[in-house]
Amino acid sequence: MTSSKQKKLLIALGAVVGVVACGVALPSLLDGSSNCGGNSAALAACKSVAICLSLTASERENKSVSVTNLTGIEREPFTQVAGLSWLHGAKVLVTAATVTNERRQLVAACDKPFDNVPRRLFGKAPLTHAVAYSDGTTGLISTEEFQKLDLTNFVDVKTIQLVSNQTNNSL
Length: 171
Hints:
Layout: H1 3-30, H2 38-59, H3 72-75, E1 92-95, E2 106-110, E3 128-133, E4 138-142, H4 143-148, E5 154-156, H5 157-170
Antiparallel strand pairs: 1-2, 1-5, 2-3, 3-4
C-alpha cells in the first residue's frame, strides 16, 4: 500500500472514530443534564443529617444523642435537610441508635442507588448508595455493601420532620 492510500485510510478511520465518539458523547452534552440530584443530592442530605446529629451532641456537651429522644427544638434542623427535594422516590434513613462523637458509626444512608457520581463523559458510573458517618464524613458504597447493612434501627428522616411539624402546629 502506498503512503497516500495509508494516509487516506487513517483519515477515514479517524473520521469514523470521531463520528462514533460524538454520537456517544453529544446526546448527554446536549440534553442539558446536570449532576444535580441523584448521589449529589443524597450525599448532601446524608451530610446534613450527620451535621444535625453532631450539633445536637455538641449542644448536649458531647453527650450521646438519638433521634428517638430529640426535643422539639433539636428536631428543627431535620426539617431543612439539604438535598431531599432532589431525591424523588428515595428515602434518607437515619439511625435511631444512640450516636456519640466518640466513635465512628453509620448515621445516614440513602435507600436508592444512583449512577451520576462520579460524572462520566462516556457511560454511567456504577450504582452506589450515599452514606454518612458520625464523624461527618460521607461516601458512596456499592449496592452489595448496602444490602449487607443492618438498617433495622433506621428511620426515614421525614418521620423526624413530621413529629417536628406536628409539635409546631400544636403550639
